[in-house]
Structure to design on (334 residues):
C-alpha cells in the first residue's frame, strides 16, 4: 500500500497543440462550451465554467497535434519546494519558468518518457467580468448554457514506451497512488491510473504499442451528468465531429465516456466520473488481467482497435519530435 503524499493538489492546466487552430478553437468553445479568456501569440487561453483558476487549457498553433505540457498545482509553497527537490534528485528537472497568465513561478520537468510536466503554487483566482458573473457566489463563472457545457478538465492519459516506469515516477517522486492497473499475462504492467487526492484518477499511462515516446492518448473533460454524455454525442454528430467510440461505460474506473477527435486530431474524452471517489486511506490497487480486459468495457463494448494506434503527434511526427531529446529512442511504428 502506498499512502498519498498530498503535495500535489490537482491537475491545473494542459497545453494542447493543434495544426488547425481556428477549427480547434471552434470545437472547444462552441462544442464543449469553454470560454475564451485571453490570447498571446499563437496561443489562446480557455476555461471551463467551474475553473477557479484563470484557465485550464491553452490551445497553441503548431505543425502537429499533441501535448506540450501538463501543469499540476502544488498544495502549498512548501509542497512545491519539496517536489522540486525530489524531481531534481530524480535527474529530470528542466528549470523554473514564468507562469502562464494567472499563475506564479512554475517548475518544469520531464517524466521518464519525455512528457513535460510543470508544478506551481501561486494562482490568481478567476474574477468573472460582469457579463459572465454567476448567480451564485460559490461558482466562478455563469454556466455557459451552450454546447456540452463541461465542468472541468478531468484527467490526462499519456502514451509511454514503458507505462509502468512512468507510473512509478509519478508515484514515487510526485506522491501519487496507483488506483487501478492492467497486468498482461507476461507480468508486464501495460497501463496505470494514478490519483493525487480523492478523485480516483488524474494521470494515466498506457503502453504505446508503436514504441514511441512523449505522445498523448487523450485529455478528458468531465460533465455534470451521464445524460450530458449522450447529449454530447448528438451535438458532435450534428456538427461533424468524429466520434471514435461510445457512449459507453468503462470497466476500469467505471467512467461513463464518449471519445471524439477535435479538428486538430487530438483525442478528447467527455467523461462522467463524478460520483466515484477514493476515500480509503489504505486503498488496494485493482489489477485487471488480459482475460478480464478481453470482455470489453463494462457493458461489453469491445475496445476499438484505434485505441492502440491513434495518438498525437502521429507516429512519424512523434519520432522526429523526440529526436532532439537526449537518450530518447523514437521506436518503431507498429
Ligand atoms: Fe480517460
Amino acid at each position: 500500500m502506498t499512502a498519498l503524499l498530498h503535495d500535489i493538489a490537482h491537475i491545473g492546466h494542459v497545453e494542447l497543440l493543434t495544426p488547425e487552430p481556428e477549427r480547434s478553437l471552434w470545437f472547444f468553445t462552441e462544442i464543449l462550451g469553454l470560454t475564451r479568456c485571453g490570447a498571446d501569440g499563437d496561443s489562446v487561453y480557455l476555461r471551463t465554467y467551474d475553473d477557479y483558476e484563470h484557465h485550464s487549457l491553452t490551445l497553441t498553433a503548431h505543425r502537429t497535434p499533441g501535448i506540450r505540457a501538463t501543469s499540476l498545482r502544488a498544495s502549498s509553497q512548501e509542497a512545491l519546494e519539496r517536489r522540486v527537490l525530489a524531481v531534481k534528485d530524480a535527474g529530470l528537472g528542466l528549470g523554473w519558468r514564468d507562469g502562464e497568465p494567472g499563475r506564479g513561478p512554475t517548475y518544469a520537468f520531464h517524466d521518464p518518457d519525455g512528457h513535460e510536466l510543470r508544478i506551481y503554487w501561486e494562482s490568481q483566482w478567476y474574477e468573472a467580468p460582469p457579463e459572465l458573473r454567476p448567480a451564485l457566489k460559490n461558482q466562478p463563472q455563469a454556466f455557459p448554457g451552450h454546447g456540452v457545457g463541461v465542468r472541468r478538465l478531468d484527467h490526462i492519459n499519456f502514451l509511454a514506451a514503458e507505462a509502468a516506469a512512468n507510473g512509478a515516477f509519478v508515484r514515487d517522486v510526485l506522491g501519487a497512488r496507483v488506483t487501478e492497473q492492467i497486468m498482461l499475462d507476461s507480468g508486464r504492467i501495460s497501463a496505470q491510473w494514478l490519483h493525487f487526492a480523492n478523485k480516483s484518477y488524474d494521470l494515466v499511462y498506457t503502453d504505446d504499442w508503436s514504441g514511441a515516446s512523449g505522445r498523448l492518448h487523450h485529455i478528458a473533460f468531465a460533465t455534470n451528468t451521464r445524460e450530458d454524455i449522450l447529449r454530447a454525442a448528438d451535438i458532435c454528430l450534428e456538427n461533424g465531429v468524429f466520434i471514435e467510440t461510445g457512449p459507453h461505460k468503462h470497466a476500469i474506473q467505471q467512467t461513463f465516456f464518449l471519445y471524439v477527435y477535435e479538428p486538430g486530431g487530438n483525442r478528447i474524452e467527455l467523461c462522467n466520473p463524478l460520483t466515484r471517489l477514493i476515500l480509503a486511506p489504505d486503498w488496494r490497487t485493482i489489477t485487471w488481467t488480459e482475460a478480464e480486459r478481453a470482455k470489453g468495457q463494462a457493458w461489453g463494448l469491445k475496445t476499438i482497435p484505434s485505441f492502440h494506434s491513434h495518438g498525437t503527434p502521429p507516429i512519424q511526427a512523434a519520432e522526429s519530435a523526440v529526436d532532439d531529446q537526449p537518450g530518447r529512442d523514437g521506436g518503431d511504428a507498429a
Remarks:
- The longest strand covers residues 8-18.
